[in-house]
Amino acid sequence: MINCNFENPFRPGAGHRPPHLAGREPETREFMRLLSQQTVLENLILTGLRGVGKTVLLDALKPQAIREGWLWIGTDLSESASVSEEAMAIRLLTDLSVVTSTLVYERSEELMGFTEQAQLDKTLNFHTLRAIFNATPGLVSDKLKNVLEIVWRVLWAHNARGLVFAYDEAQNLADQAHKEQYPLSLLLDVFQSLQKKDIRFMLVLAGLPTLFTKLVEARTYAERMFHLVFLDSLDEEASREAILKPIEAADCPLKLKKKTVTTIIDLSGGYPYFLQFICREVYDAFIQQLDSGKEVYVPVDEIVHKLDTDFFAGRWNRATDRQRDLLAVIAGLPDCDREFSVQDIAAASAANGGKPFSASQVSQMLASLGNAGLVYKNRHGRYSFAVPLLGQFIRRQEAPAPGDTM
Ligand SMILES: Nc1ncnc2c1ncn2[C@@H]1O[C@H](COP(=O)(O)OP(=O)(O)OP(=O)(O)O)[C@@H](O)[C@H]1O
Ligand SMILES: [Mg+2]
Predict the structure, then answer these.
(1) Is 169 found in the same domain as 29?
(2) Quick one: which atom of ligand 1 is closest to the CA of 169?
(3) Mean pLDDT of the residues in the chain
(4) Which domain holds residue 393?
(5) How far is 91 from 372, CA to CA, in rounded Å?
(6) pLDDT in tens, 163-190
(7) Which residue among 230, 261, 286 closes a domain?
(8) Same domain membership, residue 55 and residue 158
(9) What is the Cα–Cα distance from 194 to 200, expressed in whole angstroms?
(10) Residues 112 and 215 both lie in one domain
(11) Which of 24, 138, 191, 326 has the smallest set of CB atoms within 10 Å of its CB?
(12) Which atom of ligand 1 approaches the CA of 277 most closely?
């Protein structure tokens, strides 16, 4: 008799650490290489589709950096950090103070003459950082650079090898030209300038695939300043590990057959969120089936249906009828899971026999679908779905699949 009293080890969810972080060794090696730089010439961008594992990889890099003698600060970047240059500066000072607040600051000549000096605390806490910032003459970028340079001298004296500024959801960064506020450019300018002075501060930004394009649009030199790591779905071996290792580690009495593992890999396309989601469902289903004394099987239709409702439907329901027609044309393109162009879509819609879309209509609609987070434009001006396996989902809406279980 199998004991069904064990906790389901799988963790589908945003930023939930998986029971086993599968694959990602090459990406981790890249990061380690960047940590070995004496002068920071390259910073890191972790990018990829929704649910591919950017947040959990970022979290996993932190202990690696700390082991190498680096300090690590950071958070999620919300839109509010991009409201103004001052807001961006305050964001950085706030995060910085987490590692500096216990460091004693020998008030050196660099603050001589600053009116606030008498009010400065003895440590580099937020209050001190802010006071130095306020007292520095010049633009926000001058003030910020000055604070960061002072902090680096103190960190260096405390034997820190470097400091990683890790920001997730960095696609929220944006300049606000209409308000003459350039927080994104500020961030890039300040780091570039400090890195030129051999100050070992490294930016690690994680976000959706629009991120890199945004950075390069703000500052063309961003292309050379960042090493781009595009996280993809897991290959077959890593997918297998993601499924089997947690079961081994949790000593689950239920074992999956080879065929079941293959079914899960096929259904998930190797996308980490889908792997966690499907495995969790499979395990719950197995337990129920065992409880009721039935022979166990993977309820493929039910799982796909639940995935459609929980993951895809919210996004799909926000699209208008005309947008859905366009998405259906895209989902019919042979290369829709990789990339497609305005011309591909316009040509396919003309060939489909329905009401065709002109190229300019397609361009406009892709822009609004981009804002809705369904597609994104890559650096070469071509488009891709921003949500993994969206093409399959759309095709299921068009023609529901026949019953299929194993
Ligand atoms: N390498 C991996 N092996 C196994 N599971 C993983 C792996 N990477 C991520 N996961 C799982 O996939 C899910 C999504 O991960 P995560 O939230 O990090 O994705 P994300 O790319 O940050 O998504 P978003 O774009 O929504 O921010 C989580 O449940 C996580 O546990
Ligand atoms: Mg994330």
Answers:
(1) yes
(2) 27
(3) 89
(4) 316-398
(5) 27
(6) 999 999 999 999 999 999 999 999 999 9
(7) 230
(8) yes
(9) 8
(10) yes
(11) 138
(12) 29
In this structure, the answer to whether residues 321 and 219 fall within a common structural domain is: no
**Beta carbons within 10 angstroms of residue 108's beta carbon:** 10
Q: Which atom of ligand 1 is nearest to the CA of 58?
A: 18
Overall average pLDDT of the 125-136 stretch: 90
Cβ neighbours of residue 161 closer than 8 Å, sequence gap 6 or more: 68, 69, 70, 200
CA 212 – CA 395 distance, rounded (Å): 30
Q: How confident is the model at residue 28 (pLDDT cuts 50, 70, 90)?
A: very high
Q: How far is CA 362 from CA 149, 261, 350, in A?
A: 49, 40, 12
Residue indicated by tokens 């001298």: 153
Kindly state whether residue 187 falls inside one of the protein's structural domains: yes
Supply φ then ψ for residue 167, to 5 degrees: -125, 125
Domain contains 246: no
Question: If you ran DSSP here, which 8-state letter would residue 311 be given?
Answer: I
Give the whole-angstrom CA distance, residue 54 versus residue 241. 18
Q: How many domains does the chain have?
A: 2
**Does residue 19 line the site of ligand 1, with CB under 6 A?**
no
Rounded distance, CA 209 to CA 216, Å? 12
In a domain, 70, yes or no: yes
* Distance (Å) from CA 322 to ligand 2 centroid: 30
In a domain, 391, yes or no: yes
CATH number, domain of 321, equals 1.10.10.10
What's the rounded Cα separation, in Å, for the pair 347 and 159? 61
pLDDT higher than 70, residue 254 = yes
Task: Give the tens place of pLDDT for each residue, 55-80.
Answer: 999 999 999 999 999 999 999 998 88
Residues 56 and 195 in one domain: yes
